[in-house]
Amino acid sequence: MSLENFLKKIKELEEEDFIILKELAKKMIYFESIPLETIIRYSKLHEDEVNYRIKRLQSYKLIWKPGGIKRYVLNTLGLDVLAIKKLLDKNILYAIGKKIGVGKESDVYEGITPNEERIALKFFRIGRTSFKKYTRSREYIAEEHNRLIASIKAAKKEFEALKILYKENIRVPKPIARSFHTIVTEIFIGTELSNISKLENAENVLDKIIEELIKIFKLGIIHRDLSPYNILIKPNLEILFIDWPQWVNRNHPMAYEYLRRDIENIFSFFKRKYGIEKKYDEIDKIFKEERNFISKNNYTKSDKNG
């Protein structure tokens, strides 16, 4: 059952159903598949009640059972439902609408708040693979388990970056909330830089991108996966940086290699499409000056403390 279709039935779920789903989400950090005894113990529900709820959740395809053993696995749709439930309970979300974006490792839906404001919900799908039906292999249990945990971590990491950057007026979507593997932001409209057939004042746009990347670097953040696919051009020709789950801190041992790769990806695109040629060495001195300032500042603090 798809997420869109299931949302019409979400009111059929009862509080006891959500207790089971929450326990499966909590325990998947420790188990690839969660034993029935563990679910009974921590849910604090009677064994008969747990068995009844397990069957209901299986019928909705929110959880599944590997063949022949009394162990259960939360699946992607189950985690989606938990994320939505949490947002509903916190009055962040009132209703969810159509899918407005599909990425390699995420789906984006339009949402409506209780105040009738439009928002965007990004559901992370790390390691997404197409499966037409469940398999009963141990390998798939591990894969399902690991993909959900990775998706939660990715959402947490991206939300952290958005909060830092938005606070400093960097051009990123405004972060609103996070729920499990889902982040909520303001609704944003833009076209991927890679998909724009003709860009007015392309050199000015490139200069703006570099200017923003320098500001971001000074905040201690490097995108690490920057490309023309995650830079949006808004209708007013402003730029917007999206997709931050892989960012690293400037102190990361590979930080400057990642930074150079990010910038050279953009330079290569503008040279290929618009004939604008820039070399990384032309701006490298800016980053070197910042590095020297940081190193000197850290040394001074250490010297004073010593």
How do you describe this structure in short?
The protein has 306 residues and is of the alpha+beta class. It has helices spanning 3-6, 15-27, 36-43, 47-59, 76-89, 138-167, 202-218, 255-274, 280-305; strands at residues 34-35, 63-64, 71-74, 95-103, 106-112, 118-124, 175-179, 182-186, 191-192, 221-222, 231-233, 239-241, 248-249.
Protein topology:
Elements: H1 3-6, H2 15-27, E1 34-35, H3 36-43, H4 47-59, E2 63-64, E3 71-74, H5 76-89, E4 95-103, E5 106-112, E6 118-124, H6 138-167, E7 175-179, E8 182-186, E9 191-192, H7 202-218, E10 221-222, E11 231-233, E12 239-241, E13 248-249, H8 255-274, H9 280-305
Antiparallel strand pairs: 1-3, 2-3, 4-5, 5-6, 6-8, 7-8, 9-11, 10-13, 11-12
Helix pairs in contact: 2-4, 7-8
Question: Care to describe what's here?
Answer:
The chain has 306 residues and is α+β, with helices and mostly antiparallel strands. The protein folds into two domains: 3-186, Phosphorylase Kinase, domain 1 (2-Layer Sandwich), CATH 3.30.200; 191-300, Orthogonal Bundle (Transferase(Phosphotransferase), domain 1). It is 47% helix and 17% strand. The protein has nine helices and 13 strands. A five-stranded antiparallel sheet has the order 4-5-6-8-7. A three-stranded antiparallel sheet has the order 1-3-2, with helices on both faces. A hairpin with a 5-residue loop joins strand 11 (231-233) and strand 12 (239-241). Helix 2 packs across helix 4 (47-59) and helix 7 packs antiparallel against helix 8. The longest helix has 30 residues, at 138-167. Residues 130-141 and 298-306 have low confidence and may be disordered.
